[in-house]
Write a structure and sequence with these properties.
alpha/beta; globular; binds NADP nicotinamide-adenine-dinucleotide phosphate
């Protein structure tokens, strides 16, 4: 299928590794030129080099904290009129809600709710004028099935989801879609740290928790980030213009509900 993405431009945040990197690489394989972002400049440059070498597209790396106004300004200055925006940042830390003060909540809201909203605000009107735009927010399966130790994530991402549900119905008439991708368990550094945190809480080894989690999944495995990048890229393509305001779970069947 030709997704008609060759020559388009995308901003992909949180893209030096994990799911963001997988989305960036999959888009690049379709000929999309990239502005990628993460905080650690060395890791980001390495990823940019790898994607350039593998795909031949232009990749501009902007090392900045996307959860800050200054960081977002740097990224948007490098690409003020993207065709595609993939919002992503690290998830908030796990823990017990009794330990979280106002600052902890504000940090989670900044990274996982307000940052995507401000990035969307910066690009959506231009997309509408140009009559093409694809916005993907990387959120979490925790939006549909909350995970108790990830309370900061459950709360902040649900706020983003509610906001997007309204806006996505306004923009689609201009061929600008906004969808959320909800990862279950994918093989990334984030997964490793969540597993370690559970293991500590339960007093068992990380390998035991990993094995238990894989066996508890209908797929009996964790997801491959490339699978995530592939769906992201399809949703960015020309054929996906009728899909908007959706929360698409990629979890190997872990969510037990029918709807
Ligand atoms: N993997 C899973 O199984 C899973 C499941 C559910 C939800 N999620 C969510 O999906 C998102 C991506 O997860 P992942 O597994 O790909 O995580 P990851 O492997 O830890 O990668 C996170 C990426 O985001 C960057 N990043 C983090 N904070 C940032 C910030 N403030 N500004 C700019 N870049 C930032 C990181 O680079 P720097 O650290 O250098 O900035 C890195 O490139 C997270 O929000 C996570 O909570 C993941």
């Amino acid at each position: 299928m030709n997704l008609n993405l060759n020559g388009r431009t995308a901003i992909v945040c949180g893209a030096s590794k994990g799911l963001g990197r997988a989305c960036a690489l999959a888009l690049a394989k379709e000929g999309v030129n990239l502005v990628i972002n993460a905080r650690n400049a060395n890791a980001l440059e390495t990823t940019a080099d790898e994607i350039r070498t593998e795909t031949g597209v232009a990749v501009h790396a902007v090392a900045a904290d996307i959860s800050t106004e200054a960081g977002r300004a740097q990224v948007l200055a490098a690409c003020p009129d993207p065709d595609i925006l993939v919002t992503n940042a690290g998830g908030p830390p796990p823990g017990n809600f009794r330990d979280w003060d106002q600052q902890a909540w504000y940090a989670a809201l900044d990274a996982n709710m307000l940052t995507p909203i401000f990035l969307i605000k910066a690009v959506v009107d231009g997309m509408q004028e140009r009559r093409f735009g694809r916005i993907i927010n990387i959120t979490s399966s925790a939006v549909k099935a909350p995970i108790s130790i990830l309370g900061l994530s459950n709360g902040a991402r649900s706020g983003l989801t509610g906001f997007v549900a309204g806006l996505a119905r306004e923009t689609v008439a201009h061929n600008v879609t906004i969808n959320n991708l909800l990862p279950g368990s994918f093989e990334t550094d984030r997964l490793t740290s969540t597993v370690e945190s559970y293991a500590k809480k339960l007093g068992v080894s990380a390998d035991q928790v990993r094995e238990q989690q894989m066996q508890a999944s209908p797929a009996k495995r964790f997801g491959d980030p490339a699978e995530f990048g592939a769906l992201c890229t399809f949703l960015c393509g020309a054929q996906a213009g009728f899909v908007t305001g959706q929360n698409l779970l990629l979890d190997g069947g872990a969510y037990p509900g029918t709807f």
